[in-house]
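User: Could you check the structure of this?
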Amino acid sequence: MRIEVSESGFLALRDEHHAEESAALVNKNRAWLAPLFPWVLDFTNAADALRSIRQHKEQASEGKSLNLGYWQEGNLCGMVGFVHLDMAKHRGSLGYWLDRDCQGKGWMNQACKALLAYGFDSLHLKEVHAECLPHNHPSRQVLEALGFSLLHVTGGAEPSAEGRIPFIRFKLSKEKWLAQNA
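Assistant: Sure, the predicted structure tokens are below.
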């Protein structure tokens, strides 16, 4: 599966031969990813990346998630996907991260827009949810630029040294998506 994002960018399921590249990208970005994504602590080498790739492929085949690598100009530069799919309720949860060196170029907006179009058109999703930490302003800007509406701030789902970390939860309906992309 491949979703075109731009002339130089695309989304695709990672294959086993992407394990080294995936591990290197996470390790390069570990310092800023770890506070945002708890899974980073358990992702340290190519074996971990291979396990993740296999898990993502299995979950995609079962319709439980669709976690895609994001390539720009021939290089893996991040991940974009529906980290959870509930096909019975036609809902998905959007998740993404981008290499620090690739940020600020509008690439994540383009990648998420391409994935959302696929989700609403091909997967027949009716709504997509997303979460970000209150201090993650770039992520919030991506969601707002895509037309997501603020739902609420949660009490927190992820444990930390300070207790539970609150998230800002967003939602985008298919109707709103179609209206703004007509």
